[in-house]
Recover the amino acids of this structure.
């Protein structure tokens, strides 16, 4: 079984975010980047298939040279090879088209992507990718097993989960639950050394175009100062909740 795991290169959630060029571009200066957490859950599940069923894992990213450390980390965790599509990921449609070209040429059985990346939270790429390819698609996937050409999966829905079966090839949008946080792999020294010798292929994008553009980024408005009310001033508290907070 050939598995392709789509890897997004995203800022660490502890990073301080700023914008440049009139708030139209993300400022990467001083920002630490990591594997998108939803993608890391998917990668860990793929490694389980590698260990239990002999699957071959390729990781892929659409981005510039700055994303290669993230791909090398994925190789150190256990992926067999990596592909970097040398392009700036302009929007979800652009990324989906770029990935679709890789998949068409690679004959992958299972494509694992995170249900969304934690930078722009678009949640578009896995569904668009399945639509372009004409593959079955399961989003918000929290369980996955493969038997021959058949996949059994569960997806998170309001109030519970939905159990599904599908035939390969299949695209999933994974999330926490596909594996738990305690099951995530940390690269060890052997993995880090081995990753240096694994293949990382750089390919140019083939005709993908963006269908949207960024007008402006805005940070959330700063929270107002906290007002402290004395314990014996119940009337004042009720007045503030009613007229200012408007919660009662």
């Amino acid at each position: 079984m050939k598995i392709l795991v789509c890897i997004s290169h995203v800022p660490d959630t502890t990073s301080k975010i700023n914008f440049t060029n009139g708030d139209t571009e993300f400022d990467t200066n001083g920002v630490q980047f990591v594997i998108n957490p939803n993608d890391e859950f998917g990668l860990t599940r793929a490694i389980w298939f590698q260990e239990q069923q002999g699957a071959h894992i390729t990781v892929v990213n659409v981005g510039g040279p700055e994303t290669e450390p993230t791909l090398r980390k994925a190789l150190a965790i256990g992926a067999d090879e990596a592909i970097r599509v040398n392009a700036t990921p302009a929007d979800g449609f652009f990324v989906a088209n770029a990935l679709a070209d890789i998949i068409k040429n690679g004959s992958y059985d299972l494509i694992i992507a995170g249900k969304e990346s934690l930078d722009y939270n678009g949640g578009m790429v896995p569904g668009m990718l399945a639509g372009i390819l004409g593959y079955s698609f399961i989003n918000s996937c929290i369980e996955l097993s493969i038997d021959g050409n058949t996949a059994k999966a569960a997806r998170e829905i309001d109030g519970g989960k939905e159990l599904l079966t599908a035939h390969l090839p299949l695209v999933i949008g994974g999330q926490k639950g596909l594996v738990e946080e305690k099951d995530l792999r940390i690269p060890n020294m052997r993995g880090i050394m081995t990753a240096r010798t694994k293949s990382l292929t750089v390919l140019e994008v083939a005709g993908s175009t963006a269908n949207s553009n960024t007008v402006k980024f805005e940070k959330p408005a700063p929270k107002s100062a906290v007002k402290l009310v004395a314990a014996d001033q119940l009337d004042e508290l009720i007045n503030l909740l009613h007229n200012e907070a408007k919660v009662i």
